[in-house]
Amino acid sequence: MKVDADDFFFSGLNKPGNTNNKVGSNVTTVNVNQIGGLNTLGISLVRIDYAPYGQNPPHTHPRATEILTVIEGTLHVGFVTSNPENRLIFKVLNAGDVFVFPVGLIHFQFNPGHENAVAIAALSSQNPGVITIANAVFGSNPKIDGGILAKAFQVDKKVIDDLQSQFWMDNNN
User: Fold this and answer.
1) Is 61 annotated as a binding residue?
2) 114 labelled ligand-binding
3) Which residues make up the binding site for Mn(2+) (predicted)?
4) How does DSSP assign 22-69, residue by residue?
5) Is residue 168 scored above 70 in pLDDT?
């Protein structure tokens, strides 16, 4: 009885996000945190802006499948199947093309062009969550022991120390 139209409204997906960051992308999120009326409805939306050669780095949504539509530009997109196969499913998309990323699988998008690209994605949860793989592994707080990561990635610990010392970009608004 106390809800009104503003509980079901968001304005601003027509505005490009700031892609001036290390990964060259920006995700504008429209989920239950922006529209309270989405609570329990099982759906949300994002706009993703990509600078030339920008990417939405490998990440996963633990609670949602994503369906992405390219609005402008070209994107290289893909996801990796689960263990033990770990097979890359990959496609080049142009404006008007659609691609699905199944729930929980690591996926990415990359703009190979000299122009900006824009995509809109719908997710099957009002709160899909996002885990950016590099941020989670190398930017955790507190840090995962470098020896553990060196063994897991089969690299010298100095490589891990270097990765952990870098600032990891969060491109989600």
Assistant:
1) yes
2) no
3) 59, 61, 66, 107
4) TTSEEEEEESTTT-GGGTTS--EEEEEEE-TT-EEEEEE-TT--EEEE
5) no
pLDDT per residue as tens digits for the range 128-140? 999 999 999 999 9
| pLDDT for res 167 | 61
CA dist., res. 2 & res. 41, Å (int): 18
Main-chain dihedrals φ then ψ at residue 85, nearest 5 degrees? -70, -50
Euclidean distance between CA atoms 79 and 89, whole angstroms: 5
How far apart, in whole angstroms, are the C-alpha atoms of residue 171 and residue 19? Answer: 8
In which residue are the tokens 């990765």 written?
163
**Is 80 exceeded by the pLDDT of residue 40?**
yes
* Distance (Å, whole) CA 60 – CA 105: 6
Residues in CB range of 91: below 8 A, 6 or more apart? 76, 77, 78, 97, 99
3-state secondary structure (DSSP) of residue 72: strand
Would you give the DSSP letter of residue 161? H
Strand, helix or coil for residue 100: strand
pLDDT band at 170 (very low <50, low <70, confident <90, very high): low
Q: Is 66 annotated for ligand binding?
A: yes
**Cβ count near 11 (within 10 Å):** 7
Enter the pTM of the model: 0.92
